[in-house]
Amino acid sequence: MPLRRLGLFGGTFDPPHNGHVAALCAAAATGRFDLIEVTVAGDPYRKSALGGVHSASLRLEMARAAFEHLALVRVSDREINRPGPSYTIDTVLELLEESDDVDVLVGADLVAQLPSWHRADELRELVTVGVIPRPGATFVAPEGWDCYEIAMEPVDLSSTFLREASLDREALKLLMPDDVIAIYQGAKE
Ligand code: ATP
Questions:
Q1: Which H or E run contains 167?
Q2: How far is the centre of ligand 1, averaged over its atoms, from the C-alpha of 2 (Å)?
């Protein structure tokens, strides 16, 4: 088995935006990783119950356009191909078959939820958590979780904002990678 340290950045990416890109660049700049896998959730079970999530294939296409050219980054469809809800623990177990260590990368807004994730006790023992700063989100590592902060200037942007705001191409250019815009706008027509 090659000795490799992986970062896992999972998300719904509905749509991908410059906050995600900045997070990936900052994670790559830490020097901790040989590879960072972006995993597009097939069935993001915490979000799909609320409805309105774009198809996995569209989100994968957008994620590829947004991230695939970034240093150290690989975009994966493994959670899309796996039946049922997309659980991080299943992805981590798969990644540990090809690496020695996996850091799960999450935005500071999600850290408090970690103990409620599927098979959290097992996940906690297997991973270190790289926390990406988000404006307005301070984080405290939950008891027993090994967390560190990734150095980055926070980016005030969310997919929710992009879905809810009706922005033209010029405005979108400031908020998401160019290659994503056509795919995203095409999906809304
Ligand atoms: P939504 O608004 O639909 O909840 P989101 O913008 O949070 O979406 P996700 O695809 O759900 O995007 O997020 C994937 C990962 O990226 C999560 O760990 C999330 O915390 C993180 N993330 C999203 N936006 C930012 C941002 N602006 N800065 C840092 N991390 C972010």
A1: none
A2: 30
Q: For ligand 1, pick from 20, 58, 114, 174 the residue to mutate: most ligand atoms within 8 Å of CB.
A: 20
Listed by start position, the domains of the chain span 3-184
Q: Is 149 in the pocket of ligand 1 (CB under 6 A)?
A: no
Superfamily of domain 3-184: HUPs (3.40.50.620)
DSSP per-residue letters across 143-166 = TT--EEEPP-------HHHHHHS-
pLDDT digits (tens, 9 = 90+) for 107-151: 999 999 999 999 999 999 999 999 999 998 899 999 999 999 999
pLDDT tens-digit series, residues 39-65: 999 876 666 666 678 899 999 999 999
